[in-house]
Design a protein that fits this description.
- This protein is of the alpha+beta class.
- It folds into 2 domains: about 100 residues, 2-Layer Sandwich (Phosphorylase Kinase, domain 1); about 170 residues, Orthogonal Bundle (Phosphatidylinositol 3-kinase Catalytic Subunit, Chain A, Domain 5).
- The protein has 7 helices and 11 strands.
- The strands form 3 sheets. The chain has a 6-stranded antiparallel sheet with strand order 1-5-6-4-3-2, covered by helices on one side.
- Strand 8 and strand 9 form a beta hairpin.
Length: about 280
């Protein structure tokens, strides 16, 4: 049963398991009646809240104008049986998150590869998204340094010959870095967290030449209606166990941090005309 989807891609069932990957969200490579996909299902060791973060992060990325993968929320009835790699758990019946497998590569981490991105203006949008949502799973500087090039997808589909489309993907660790979502999400120290999430040093080399992109990214952020942000949070399926008080805290955090970040993002990137 299809619950919600993003595009024309509409699988109706998982037919078989191809591979179970030992990632944090225990993603599965599966075959569906509409081709191959990656699936994140209930029953993983990190709990259902990472699925809620995936949905919210992906929808916010699309609202910013970033390319995202075709996705669908699909009822998983327990068949075929799916064993998860990291926890060893069996997937539970409930709402699963699926994205269509695309032709692309993950970023090598080399700055030279960024010149082949067909949508370079979206590099700063991706940084803005990660800072808005406090995404610790792409790039997080500081004593808890996290560098994850696997979460920077360069898609060949739809790109000019020899180029790639930077595509926003994998948002399971926004907001809480994989921990359970709680009603204290909107604490002021989290709303005003200055950590430069998403700002790979290699991205800096591109962004410093494109100040107008940062200004445009903030304009896109501010153009998202408050009601739409609330609707995104309210679209989280009930079986992912995000109660009303936590949903309200998520909405408050996203709205308050949007307002705070939009005022400081460009000036932090370009103090006195230079990139920090």
């Amino acid at each position: 049963m299809i619950i919600e989807h993003s595009h024309h891609w509409k699988p109706t069932r998982i037919r078989s398991l191809i591979a179970a990957l030992p990632t944090g969200s225990e993603v599965l490579q599966v075959d569906t009646d509409a081709g191959r996909a990656f699936a994140k299902v209930p029953g993983g060791g990190e709990g259902p809240h990472v699925l809620a973060c995936e949905l919210v992060g992906t929808r916010l990325a699309a609202l910013l104008g970033l390319p995202v993968l075709d996705w669908i929320l699909l009822h998983y009835p327990g068949l075929p049986p799916l064993r998860l790699a990291k926890s060893g758990n069996m997937a539970k019946t409930g709402t699963a998150w699926l994205t269509r497998t695309v032709n692309g590569v993950v970023w090598s981490g080399h700055s030279g590869d960024l010149k082949y991105i067909a949508n370079p203006a979206d590099i700063v949008k991706l940084v803005l998204l990660d800072q808005w949502t406090r995404n610790c799973d792409r790039y997080r500087p500081g004593p808890k340094l996290r560098i994850n090039h696997n979460n920077v997808l360069l898609k060949r589909e739809g790109a000019p010959e020899g180029r790639f489309i930077l595509t926003a993907m994998d948002h399971t660790h926004i907001l809480t870095c994989g921990a359970s979502l709680t009603r204290d999400l909107a604490r002021i120290d989290l709303v005003k967290d200055v950590t430069a999430f998403g700002l790979f040093p290699e991205f800096v080399e591109v962004i410093q030449r494109r100040r107008a992109d940062a200004v445009a990214a903030v304009a896109a952020l501010n153009a998202i209606p408050e009601a739409t942000i609330r609707d995104v949070v309210r679209s989280i399926p009930s079986d992912w166990e995000v109660d009303d008080s936590v949903r309200t805290a998520m909405e408050d955090f996203l709205l308050q941090r949007r307002d705070w970040l939009s005022n400081i993002f460009v000036t932090r990137l370009f103090p006195q005309g230079e990139l920090f």
